[in-house]
Design goal:
two-stranded antiparallel sheet, 187 residues, globular, 2 domains, Endochitinase, domain 2, 10 helices
Length: 187
């Protein structure tokens, strides 16, 4: 397993952030049966990459975050994304259902599916995805439905990153975190 201290150090994250988030994430993953070494390492590395921002001089790594960008930018990026369940021509779905949490849940359909799974109406209250416990449960749900444990267990961490972000965005940092976290694993 990975201790809070080891995750904080390996992921360059504030200890106070990891102390809150990591136990919630581990508990949510365990509740879904996601317990293998590679899956847990992939989880920590994913959270570090997906939340690794500084806002107003404060390191937000390992805190659930809202996707960066103005409403105008987010609407341009996502309003017409019918593949995400957003309504074309209905200005505002892009910003309303922009990325939130540890995994950057994005799109009305994903908010509906994740909310249904965890028992929280995320469509009506998208900011509920920023609550650390909800964000951890959404994260575990995402790992489950995308079979991340199986992919991680094959050692294909590049594919793990693709499943999360659809491409190579953050890949170098992710792989560095995986390498560093692997040195701290304690059976």
């Amino acid at each position: 397993m990975l201790s809070v201290d080891n995750v904080a150090y390996a992921c360059h994250a504030p200890l106070e952030n990891v102390s809150v988030a990591w136990p919630l994430i581990v508990a949510a993953l365990e509740a879904e049966g996601i317990v293998s070494k590679n899956a847990i390492i992939a989880a920590a590395a994913t959270v570090a990459v997906e939340t690794g921002v500084s806002l107003h001089g404060k390191n937000q790594t390992f805190l659930p975050i809202h996707e960066l960008g103005s409403d105008a930018y987010l609407n341009r990026a996502y309003d017409a994304r019918i593949d995400l369940g957003n309504t074309p021509g209905l200005d505002g779905d892009g910003a309303l259902y922009a990325g939130r949490g540890f995994i950057q849940l994005t799109g009305k359909d994903n908010y509906e599916k994740a909310g249904s799974y965890i028992g929280v109406d995320l469509v009506e209250d998208p900011d509920a995805a920023l609550d650390p416990e909800n964000a951890a449960r959404i994260f575990a749900w995402f790992f489950k439905i995308h079979h991340i444990q199986h992919i991680a267990d094959t050692g294909n961490f590049i594919q793990v990153r693709r499943c999360v972000n659809g491409g190579r965005n953050g890949l170098e940092s992710f792989l560095n975190y995986v390498k560093e976290l692997s040195t701290y694993w304690e059976d």
